[in-house]
């Protein structure tokens, strides 16, 4: 076999350093393991990341496909690209918004940058977004509003330093096992673990305190803890007075502890236990249970407020959102989705001029707004505002809320799907462009603590599949001559173009290069020089801080709990929520077999007993106001009474979910909606219906993100 090659796992945003090498014949990956020299993870790995890199089970796409006579049939690249670009040029002849582009946190930095350059600078479309909006947008909005800049302040180095680990609306034991191992090691070393989650998860099983709020009340609970902290006098007055603004408004906006506790369905003693934990150095982690809500931004800001008010905003403490997709962070820095590269403000005229000059495109072509978000783009397509849609490494037909309606929209528009594996979105497409996946791609990725590292190609992609970067450039140059160099592109030169455009910004990558990353393996931004690297954000040492706001101070918030978007009633008396299972990620297109059975649902035995007429042979039909899905039921007291829990990995799950979005972030409310259960039809049709719903050729996830 060849020598080992350093690379980065692309399974989740932990960013584990891997080593890989091909088989003796060079046709496929032969071995993958952890890299002990990697500065972020030191050889740590999870089995899921290794197995999904080495031997994914999903159905690969190896040739371009064009729909003919209602079916997808193989073709050559010239034919596929010719059809795609002719339709794109035709659409652009009507107006710039006639092309909708949906990207992904599974792309490399280089591919995400190129897609944003083409969407914003080549097409000029406002209808461009990444599926990271489906999972991280609320955290991003909260960071910008609180600190003036995106990304969590802490790093992995802070985990062993913390005394209290407060995990809110996340299950890292299942979703981020390597990070969770570090957390449990820290807890074992005289620390404590507090978990906030309505469901008894693998993470909650390890908790010293497990807090179970009513679904959709996280903001009310966070504000109850704030009230308890302030009532107890456990505030860091010096930090508040010297480094923050808005504290008085926060205090004035708070309800009484008893009122907030009643709203959240949590007793005051438990709330005081959380507040007491915050008196020690605390890392406060959160995930999709917070973000995927119409109050996601407000809740994330309230969690940041908890850190600010208690002075937990320095080494060994602070707010630390847990990112799902492997390159969600890089996508936010470089893809021109919500900000221009380097987190330059989208409406900043100086930034816009710099971007237009770097891309050599007319300033007037750059859209004036970031667009309506992932859900809003699909709504715009449904209204006929875009004639064509291009999806890259994402699967909206399975990963978006009200997925049945999304599928209907995608079947009506001219759809180009670029992916490595078959998926529900691919099944809707008019043209399919086969892409390379892990081990077949050159580039970089950025993990959740801001470390940039290399993603390396060990083997060629199968058949005619090409790297994302080259597919994007081939389309771009046909639409806008000279936008990119001739393909195949040199990813290193694309990276250099990207990093130069971030120089002088809050997310400065200009001190990075492929040579440096080859030598050091992973470097945190900001890295403005060839020997600099980022540490704890905003902290300049001792009592010196500098936040990226106009005042240089962190900002408190004062949003109040407004209720859930779809209250329960007599017709829909149960609450649906979704979560992850061990060994699967997103909607599982890399490891879902074609013969998968109907989705499993977990329901409390008491709820099962109250609804016995709705069950037949351990099956029931879950029905929301949008659709219905046949499931197999497991009675499980880890789920609270009145709740139905389904795995997000199954494509049927999002047929039920609600497309309401957070007004600040455009992130959808995927974690709560009203449902009922009814008996399935007593015929073989229900078996066929359930199996079809669960085994469509592939999926995406974290609230809707394709796995590569």
TrEMBL record:
Organism lineage string: Archaea, Methanobacteriati, Methanobacteriota, Stenosarchaea group, Halobacteria
InterPro entries in alphabetical order: Asp_de-COase-like_dom_sf, MoPterin_dinucl-bd_dom, Mopterin_OxRdtase, Mopterin_OxRdtase_4Fe-4S_dom, Nitr_red_NasA, Prok_molybdopt-oxidoreductase
Region annotation (Disordered) ranges: 20-51, 661-708
Keywords: 4Fe-4S, Iron, Iron-sulfur, Metal-binding, Oxidoreductase
One function term, GO molecular function aspect: molybdopterin cofactor binding
GO cellular component, one term: membrane
Domain 4Fe-4S Mo/W bis-MGD-type: 2-57
Classification via Pfam families: Molybdopterin (PF00384), Molydop_binding (PF01568)
Name of the protein: Nitrate reductase
Domain of life of the source: Archaea
Organism: Halonotius pteroides
């Amino acid at each position: 076999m060849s020598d080992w090659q350093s690379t980065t796992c692309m399974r989740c945003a932990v960013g584990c350093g891997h080593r890989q090498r091909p088989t003796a014949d060079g046709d496929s990956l032969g071995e993958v393991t952890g890299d002990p020299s990697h500065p972020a993870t030191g050889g740590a790995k999870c089995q899921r990341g290794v197995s999904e890199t080495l031997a994914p089970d999903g159905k690969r796409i190896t040739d371009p496909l064009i729909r003919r006579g209602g079916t997808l049939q193989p073709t050559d690249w010239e034919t596929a690209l010719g059809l795609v670009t002719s339709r794109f040029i035709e659409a652009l002849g009507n107006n710039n918004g006639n092309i909708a582009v949906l990207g992904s946190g599974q792309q490399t930095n280089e591919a995400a940058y190129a897609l944003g350059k083409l969407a914003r600078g080549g097409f000029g479309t406002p209808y461009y977004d990444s599926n990271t909006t489906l999972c991280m947008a609320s955290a991003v909005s909260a960071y910008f509003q609180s600190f003036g800049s995106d990304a969590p302040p802490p790093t992995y180095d802070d985990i062993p330093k913390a005394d209290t680990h407060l995990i809110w609306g996340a299950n890292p034991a299942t979703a981020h096992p390597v990070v969770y191992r570090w957390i449990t090691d820290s807890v074992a070393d005289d620390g404590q673990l507090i978990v906030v989650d309505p469901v008894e998860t693998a993470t909650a099983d390890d908790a010293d305190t497990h807090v179970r709020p009513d679904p959709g009340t996280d903001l009310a609970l966070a504000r109850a803890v704030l009230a308890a902290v302030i009532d107890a006098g456990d505030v860091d007055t010096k930090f508040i007075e010297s480094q923050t603004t808005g504290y008085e408004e926060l205090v004035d906006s708070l309800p009484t502890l008893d009122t907030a506790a009643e709203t959240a369905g949590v007793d005051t003693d438990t709330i005081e236990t959380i507040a007491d934990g915050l008196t020690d150095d605390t890392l406060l982690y959160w995930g999709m249970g917070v973000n995927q809500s119409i109050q996601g931004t407000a809740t994330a800001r309230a969690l940041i407020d908890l850190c600010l008010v208690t002075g937990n905003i320095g080494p060994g403490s602070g707010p630390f959102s847990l990112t799902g997709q492997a390159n969600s962070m890089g996508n936010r820095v470089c893809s021109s989705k919500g900000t221009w590269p380097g987190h330059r403000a989208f409406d900043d005229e100086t930034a816009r001029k710099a971007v237009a000059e770097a891309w050599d495109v007319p300033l007037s072509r750059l859209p004036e707004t970031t667009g309506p978000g992932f859900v809003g783009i699909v709504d715009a397509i449904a209204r006929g505002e875009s004639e064509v849609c291009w999806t890259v490494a994402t699967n909206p037909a399975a990963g978006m809320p009200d997925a049945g309606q999304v599928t209907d929209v995608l079947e009506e528009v001219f759809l180009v799907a670029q992916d490595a594996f078959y998926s529900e979105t691919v099944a809707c497409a008019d043209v399919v462009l086969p892409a390379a996946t892990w081990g077949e791609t050159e580039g970089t990725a950025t993990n959740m603590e801001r470390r940039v590292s290399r993603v390396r190609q060990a083997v060629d992609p199968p058949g005619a599949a090409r790297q994302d970067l080259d597919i994007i450039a081939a389309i771009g140059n046909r639409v806008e001559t000279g936008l990119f160099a001739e393909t195949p592109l040199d990813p290193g030169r694309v990276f250099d173009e990207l990093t130069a455009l971030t120089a002088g910004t809050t997310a400065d990558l200009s001190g990075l290069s492929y040579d440096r990353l080859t030598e050091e393996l992973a470097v945190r931004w900001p890295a403005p020089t060839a020997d600099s690297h980022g540490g704890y954000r905003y902290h300049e040492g001792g009592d010196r801080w500098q936040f990226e706001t106009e005042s240089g101070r962190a900002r408190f918030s004062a949003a109040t709990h407004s209720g859930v978007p779809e209250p329960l009633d007599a017709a829909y008396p149960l609450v649906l929520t979704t979560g992850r299972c061990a060994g699967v990620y997103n909607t599982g297109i890399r490891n879902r077999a074609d013969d998968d059975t109907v989705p499993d649902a977990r329901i409390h035995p008491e709820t099962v007993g109250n609804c016995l007429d709705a069950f037949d042979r351990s099956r029931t039909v879950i029905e929301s106001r949008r659709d219905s899905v046949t499931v197999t039921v497991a009675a499980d007291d880890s789920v609270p009474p009145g709740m139905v829990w389904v795995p997000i990995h199954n494509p049927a799950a999002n047929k039920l979910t609600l497309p309401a979005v957070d007004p600040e972030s455009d992130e959808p409310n995927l974690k709560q909606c009203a449902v009922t259960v009814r008996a399935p039809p007593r015929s073989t049709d229900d078996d066929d219906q359930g199996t079809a719903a669960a085994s469509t050729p592939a999926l995406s996830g974290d609230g809707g993100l394709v796995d590569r």
